[in-house]
């Protein structure tokens, strides 16, 4: 059930300030490249200026003359690394095009040499002086370039299992009273986290410590060990803070094992901080996508046919698919659904996860098409969504665990003033500015993964929580502290959280918006074990009842209804007296319902057995939102401004409305940025990125987003996990692209189907 005002709980649900706020604003927070090393060697990467061909020769005479020169590692003298599979194929890597393997060049910006020197400046100078002679071939850049190959995503990738379909689309579409076919395009985009891609490697005998910003310390640890052919127990990854990631630091990039192997050979610590432009190539990105959406509806707005075909660019080395149509085929009631995702291979670096894959490009297409259909039907776009709202997804007929989409639209519309909208394009204006209102559905699958944690409670209430989660700006420290404080009945200030270190009990990749659900559910479970020990010491007779009800911890239980004793206050000191100890420590594991039997072993091996979204057994779980945008388009200059962004979201239990709000605000702003500004331009002749810097890759500043409002609806969902959490990291930017374009249509009468919408695309 949904109401407007979430009721705060004791700790979980309180808008407490970020756990790491003071450390961050005072500069005390140490990011990977900040960690001081003793007598380090500085590494600088040399990357290829051609996208296809091979290296003919090196001339390093001038380079070697630079004072402070230590070494240059190329394919001619690099350590051979073991082959490792792509993350999406059950491995670790972001690309299987491993650099320094041979003289072949398969993508622009491929690492061709690593320069080592006594100072960063010397290393950079050496890199500039290194002469590399290439034999260039003509590369294939993108869609419609000669030389691409195309094949269905299904069957090429182990993580891409389906092109959902149901009923008879062709017949449904043919019989429909109203039909729409439209094509959409999303451009190449890069994550551009503030923190650059950095790696420091330190060997101590056979033991390797890696300082690197990572969304997955266990994946990186195990992946590097596999590439180097060493025991994972000898590898430790430390990253207490990550300065933005958004997917780009989720899978292991090939640079880490290279740096580690050189550090071993030199027997010195190495520090590498890649440059901003190199980050466009040595990591992942969102490749450009094309879509055809076909909708058939009755005159009263009921969908009778839906088809979504997506085409995505990937590299020659790897078929990466963002995940396709699993969401867009299931979000509305429709009897006849068809879909197909095709991967187009070009001479490009391998794309990867980017905040809200695949919902951002695919939902842009669907939610634009829904708006176009509403125009054809002469119907309010919110009403069109209401008519097609459903509590069961149409492909498998599975029920949503909870779905507050229309409540989000109702609350959002009220706060936004949607009733003041005139649906007639160009009918609202203010002086020289045409005004448009647009809206769209946002949604993101609820995903969860197994994790382990260790919790230590002292007699005086001080608590230590250890779990190898990752703080990527998501508020991980904060919500973990809150979960422990609530469960153990101690003040949140008493809780110390240790994350970002692969020596801690394993947690999943901080991706797919699963972190809070997974880590908090695990911490709650382990805190419950601590409670049970204390509770048993105090009341041995009640303990049997408590033990019995413990069996129900996990699925089907909200935090408030877990094991007996869990919500009963008791005297902590008396319990410690009864036990005769000063400290209680418990290690425990949690896995979501439906996670495979090998889950716990896999998590130690750096594999996340994530379940959720449409892949849950017998049900489907999504978080929802309704997003509203006001645009103003200047009649004469076509300048586009966005004075207001508003999103109303329902995502199960909100652990912390303050950190949640900032996540969702960030998402809305990114969504607007993605609609209007962001695009990586490709030079089709050379298959190279042109604007690989933060001056030319357009990003919004505060003045571009003067008002961003987030409304959090309270939603209880007891079918998910012990924390009752759905996850919000990626929910915020899913609907925004379409909402912006829908608002631009309302302002100007022009439907822009190719992002980003820049003023040159508008005719006035
Ligand atoms: Mo998120 S793009 O799954 O890191």
Shape, principal axes of CA atoms = globular
Largest β-sheet summary = 7 strands, mixed
- Ranges where pLDDT stays below 50 over 5 or more residues in a row are 1-9, 545-565
Number of helices: 17
Give the strand order, joined by hyphens, for the main sheet.
Answer: 4-6-2-13-10-11-12
**Distinct ligand kinds:** dioxothiomolybdenum(VI) ion
User: How far do the termini sit from each other?
Assistant: 46 Å
Number of strands: 30
Structural class call reads alpha+beta
Gyration radius, in Å: 26 Å
Residue share in helices? Answer: 10-25%
Q: How large is the share of residues in beta strands?
A: 15-25%
- Overall pLDDT: 94
Quaternary status: single chain
What does this structure look like?
- By secondary structure, the protein is of the alpha+beta class.
- Helices cover 25% and strands 23% of the residues.
- The protein is built from 17 helices and 30 strands.
- The strands form 8 sheets. It has a 7-stranded mixed beta sheet with strand order 4-6-2-13-10-11-12, with helices on both faces. A 5-stranded mixed beta sheet has the order 8-16-15-14-9, with helices on both faces. Strands 17-18-25-26-29 form a 5-stranded mixed beta sheet.
- The protein is globular.
- Residues 1-9 and 545-565 have low confidence and may be disordered.
- Dioxothiomolybdenum(VI) ion is lined by residues 215, 246-247, 250, 353-355, 357, 511-512, 730.
